[in-house]
Specification:
It is built from seven helices and 16 strands. The protein is α+β, with helices and mostly antiparallel strands. The protein has two domains: 3-36 and 66-114 and 124-205, HIT family, subunit A (2-Layer Sandwich); 207-368, HIT-like (HIT family, subunit A, 2-Layer Sandwich). The chain has an eleven-stranded antiparallel sheet, with helices on both faces. The longest helix has 20 residues, at 280-299. The mean pLDDT is 96.
């Protein structure tokens, strides 16, 4: 049973410890053990800005304060390693899994809503960058990867994702909660310590909105009996050529129209909106299958594979939410041992993806990379 303990950093940001049992949690329930001794100044309550792009109908976050964020520090200056006698970090005590408000957030710390469409008039007044950005550190060890975490630790991370999804979804103005991990310098990480992030957006993001609208159309056509993700998964399992692995509660496949050289979707068999809706047995299996997928990505080459692990969860919007079906999109730009896929003219300017690999061949490689 995962236990959460809440405390505050010296500038007022929230810090949460997630422990697998009462004995581990006890150390975080002693105020002196978790007190942040840095004496940071109070954080700026204003944050950045949101500006509306009239050409695309999309919100853009302006977060110039992030230019000063920590960038690839040496281990003895890592903000995610626990504080000790020689350094003070973002996390005062040793821990299993820790979640805290980002010191350099893209969204927040103010909470509130923005209109999905400001209207027909030219809208050039910035809005506050409402929302919340959190960092989730998977371990207090500086080195390693998510794939190398023990099962018990992954299971705690799953519970932390679920708890934060449920809590953040209930905050004023929040329309979408996004849990993700960027892994590798090629992806643009600014900290080597194994960690992910959780964003609570004040709007439904453009790609999520497109997916949600198509999902709703399918759901309504089925009379509310089938999600689009379930229909796609059923077709993939029947075809078989792009399947990577199958479990009792989850299955993973390379999509028919994969955009990236390496792309796998991990989908629960049951129609659930988000991570918080997963039951105990589903979370147990997820803690086994997800790291297995990551290990297969790494097994393809002699060096670790960079990736983005993106959890697509149903928007909070009551019109879109019933059709939403939780799934992971795990992608990598690595198209060969020494080559990366860059988003150049067609992808970056036009949004038209060109994939250099064949999905069926990628799936076969990932199947072969699994346990003998």
């Amino acid at each position: 049973m995962t236990i959460m303990t809440s405390t505050r950093l010296s500038d007022g940001r929230e810090l949460l410890y997630f422990d697998a049992d009462a004995e581990s949690a006890r150390r975080h329930q002693e105020p002196e053990q978790v007190r942040d001794r840095r004496g940071l100044p109070a954080r700026n309550p204003d944050g950045g800005q949101l500006r509306f792009d009239e050409l695309t109908g999309e919100w853009v976050a302006i977060a110039a304060h992030r230019q000063d964020r920590t960038h690839l520090p040496p281990e003895d200056e890592c903000p995610l390693c626990p504080s000790d006698g020689t350094r003070r970090s973002e996390i005062p005590a040793g821990y299993e899994v820790a979640v805290f408000e980002n010191r350099f957030p893209s969204f927040g710390p103010q909470l509130g809503g923005v209109p999905a469409d400001p209207g027909p008039e030219l809208h050039q007044d910035p809005e506050p960058s409402y929302g919340r950005c959190e960092v989730i550190s998977f371990t207090d060890a500086h080195t390693g990867s998510f794939a190398e975490l023990p099962y018990e630790r992954v299971r705690t991370v799953v519970d932390a994702w679920a708890q934060r999804t449920e809590t953040l979804s209930g905050l004023p103005g929040v329309q979408q909660v996004f849990c993700f991990e960027n892994r590798g310098a090629e992806i643009g990480v600014t900290l080597h310590h194994p960690h992910g992030q959780i964003y609570a957006y004040p709007f439904v993001t453009p790609r999520a909105l497109r997916i949600a609208r198509l999902a709703r159309r399918h759901f309504l056509r089925s009379g509310g009996l089938e999600s689009q993700a379930a229909a796609i998964l059923a077709a993939e399992r029947t075809d078989g050529s792009r399947m990577v692995l199958e479990g009792r509660h989850f299955s993973a496949y390379v999509p028919f129209a994969a955009r990236w050289p390496l792309e796998v979707h991990l989908v629960p068999h049951r129609h659930v909106a988000d991570l918080s809706a997963l039951g105990g047995a589903e979370r147990d299996e997820l803690a086994e299958l997800y790291p297995e997928l990551l290990r297969r990505f790494d097994a393809l080459y002699d060096t670790p594979t960079p990736y983005i692990a993106a959890w697509h969860q149903a928007p909070v919007d009551p019109e879109l939410r019933p059709a939403g079906h939780l799934h992971l999109q795990l992608t990598s730009p690595r198209r060969a041992a020494d080559k990366l896929k860059y988003l150049a003219g067609s992808e970056a300017a036009m949004g038209a993806f060109i994939n250099d690999t064949v999905p069926e061949e990628t799936a076969a490689r990932l199947r072969e990379a699994g346990p003998a």
